[in-house]
Design goal:
two-stranded antiparallel sheet; elongated; mainly beta; 14-stranded antiparallel beta sheet; 16 strands
Length: about 375
Amino acid sequence: MQVKNTLIKLIVAAVAMVPTAVAAQTSSINAFSPYTMYGIGEQNTPGTLSMRSMGGAGVAMRSPGTLNLLNPAAYSAAQQKTFLFNFGLEGQNYYNSQKVAGESKNTAYNTFNFHDIAFQMPLAKKLGLGFSLTPYSSVGYRTKYYHEYDPTDPVYGNVGNVQYNYQGEGDVTEVKLGIGWEVVKRVSIGVAAQYYWGDIERTYQTVVSNNIVNGGSVNTVTGTDSYGISRIKMQLGLQADLIQSERQVLTLGATYDMGGNLRPSVNQTVVNGDIYGTVVRGDTTRMALKLPVQLGVGLYYQNAKIAAGVDYIYQNWENNESPKSVPGAVNVAYKNTNTVKLGFEYTPNRMDIRNYLKRWSYRVGFRYGTYYQ
């Protein structure tokens, strides 16, 4: 009964916090990159603070005192009559510098938002439950291209000055609910349901300043694509302790994300910027946008003072039937990705009750991988 009451309270608390977290996600831009013009945008590095500060490694991380958002098999480590709750925030600074037609162009942008809400608790001996709400991907860009009037150009010479504006924002959020079970000594399995939802809006605009015809008229055409995503996927997990003693633990971990079609609904409109705001086109369709099949394997070592982890993540994007272009923009192709994550943690003395600084954990991480576009 005590476990049941605790579970009910935590679920109610999580549900109460979801609207606030979702509002935080969708009310501001969480990425700032022209590469987010396509697909689901820029993928966020998953995991809690301790994992992210170790390069994102953690598929094999297993600890009764730390939440693991990467592998549901780790939920079986939850100790009896205890529960863990985690809330994370994230801030980023984006800076870009490049030369366009010999002129330096600099852009800077700051973001600050929530990163994760999660809890973990035992259901029975060697059986645990975990819940997490995290951003999966983010879209955020504002870019423009200005084509000046050129009387010698066979096309633009008859049109005038043309400015192309591209803008987009939005995100995809992942909610995960999973169970982990230690089926035999040192071996645990897990399964999780992953619910993805979000809204993404992309706008492309053409502004023509005709300095030749009609005494300098201006005409604007604006196209908007609004995506609505709402789908459930599955994840499987495995963890096995290769070495387990009072002094050290070495764990092998693996996960498999099934991926699949998100089939977002897309509202497409094209509006002519005349005094009537004439809608030139208005369609509602389903887009063949898929999440990749993902395979992750890792090793995680722990003793009284140090912890070290390494992960390898493979994502199959090439079988994705996502649209290969955005109206008015360049073509883009998807490719499979390979990512390696390394992390190291040092804690001088976890049990020191006199010196607080000795209980601090110092972490460093490294991550290297290919991009899916």
